[in-house]
Design a protein that fits this description.
Structural class: alpha+beta
Radius of gyration: 27 Å
Largest sheet: 4 strands, antiparallel
Strand order of the largest sheet: 6-5-7-8
Strand content: 15-25%
Number of helices: 16
Distance between the termini: 27 Å
Length: 435
């Protein structure tokens, strides 16, 4: 539902400036109407409709080389109401309109959430047991239990965002509290690449003492007859006091295909179980859901904002959302990153299993920013491709030829179709074989 809403708003971003500049808009469609439409109605010069192919939406602007590839119209002499007859600056505004709307919508949603909900604040020392770190971060200088509270000398008000900062932002130093004393850790420039290759889900994560709360049916824990209230106390000789310790042991101590001992407290008595697990079994995990034995392991506070402050904070949050999304493209062009590309199934997973209005709008804002970034990419057939050619025209004073634009549009469409097939193919593969 929200994706359809964002598509309509995006297309309105093109439609409104086009009409303001007296450019004829022939069609306004949600989804694509190849051969036929589910619904259509002509109002004035524009046909409004819903197509059957749910791959986005479009507006067909008269006198513009777009996905419709209307060569017959383009072969006729330019008319004053056509896109190609307007000044380059007007055409640029029309092409940027959709992206601008998506960005503004994202800002407004974030501002609304911040105004009504505030933001959660928790610095490193608000986490009683500190953080657990992967082997990659240990090699950099972090120690299990460190409490991060400064990044590049600035207070880290939301310590849970440390992982995001290390992956996507220019972090040079992190200062932590270690046994109550400040320690500054120098961060190497390639830390993001190291974390991505090792697996970004490996930390940093807050620590909490735990016991087992429930077991996934058919899981390894189920086969070992582990029950609610039992406790894993050691894996391959590595003590497990916090939930992050278990993950650390599985990823760094246990060797796939080699036997190891898992020590478990069954009904208050320790039992040692010998296991030999494959790489795939280790990746699936034990299949337990844990419950903290100390519910006061974190001291969260809510920071409230006025209306003006909410918009400022919303713009800041939106900026960093787009910044981090763009920054992750450097990981896409790797073997591991390409395998994680996803399509509509991945987008659907962004939404929680149970409906919640705040989560719904937060995810809608995220997708709005993603649409803005994806559409501004300089690929022919996307808004960014048209913007690229318009900027060339404005700077050089020379307009690209229509034949060149047609060929570029065809190439762009083929690139997009290939990416769409690959991304959605990844979703199907993960659904069939797991990932």
């Amino acid at each position: 539902m929200s994706l359809s809403l964002l598509i309509v708003l995006h297309e309105l971003g093109h439609f409104i400036p086009a009409r303001l500049f007296k450019i004829k808009v022939e069609k306004f469609y949600l989804f694509f109407d190849i051969k036929f439409s589910l619904f259509k109605k002509k109002i004035g010069d524009t046909v409004y409709g819903i197509g059957w192919l749910p791959l986005g939406g479009y507006v067909k602007i008269a006198g513009m080389i777009d996905e419709s590839m209307d060569r017959e119209q383009m072969a006729k002499p330019p008319q004053p109401w056509e896109f190609r007859s307007k000044p380059a600056w007007q055409r640029l505004i029309v092409m940027l309109g959709g992206v601008i709307v998506n960005v503004v919508v994202g800002f407004i949603i974030y501002a609304g959430i911040i105004y009504t909900q505030g933001t959660q604040q928790a610095t490193g020392d608000d986490f009683k047991y500190g953080f657990g770190f992967s082997k990659t971060l240990e090699d950099v200088g972090f120690v299990q239990g460190d409490q991060p509270y400064l990044v590049n000398g600035d207070t880290l008000e939301r310590a849970l965002e440390l992982k995001k900062a290390l992956l996507f932002r220019d972090v040079k130093t992190v200062t932590v509290l270690r046994n109550g004393a400040p320690v500054t850790i120098n961060i190497p420039e390639d830390i993001g690449d190291r974390m991505f290759e090792a697996g970004v889900d490996l930390g940093p994560s807050y620590r909490r003492p735990f016991v087992i709360d429930s077991i996934a049916k058919g899981s390894l824990a189920d086969s070992l007859q582990i029950k609610k209230g039992d406790d894993v106390i050691a894996v391959a000789g590595y003590p497990v006091a916090y939930q992050t310790d278990f993950k650390y042991a599985i990823n760094n101590i246990v060797v796939p295909g080699e036997p190891f001992i898992m020590s478990i407290m069954y009904n208050g008595e320790q039992q040692d179980v010998e296991l030999t697990l494959s790489k795939e079994q280790l990746a699936k995990g034990l299949g337990v859901y844990s419950l903290s034995t100390d519910m006061d392991f974190v001291n969260l506070s809510i920071k409230k904002y006025g209306i003006a402050e909410s918009f400022v904070e919303g713009i800041s949050m939106g900026y960093w959302t787009m910044h981090d999304y763009i920054a992750q493209f450097k990981y896409v062009f790797t073997k591991k990153g390409a395998g994680q590309l996803g399509g509509f199934g991945t987008i659907a997973k962004l939404y929680p299993d149970t409906f919640d209005w705040v989560d719904f709008w937060r995810t809608t804002a995220l997708i709005s920013f993603i649409l803005a970034v994806m559409n501004i990419l300089p690929i022919p057939a996307l808004d960014g491709g048209h913007v690229m050619f318009l900027l060339y025209e404005i700077i050089t004073g020379r307009k690209p030829g229509e034949k060149f634009m047609e060929r570029a549009q065809i190439i762009g469409i083929l690139i997009l179709l290939a990416l769409m097939l690959y991304a959605n193919g990844n979703d199907v593969y993960k659904w069939l074989f797991g990932s």
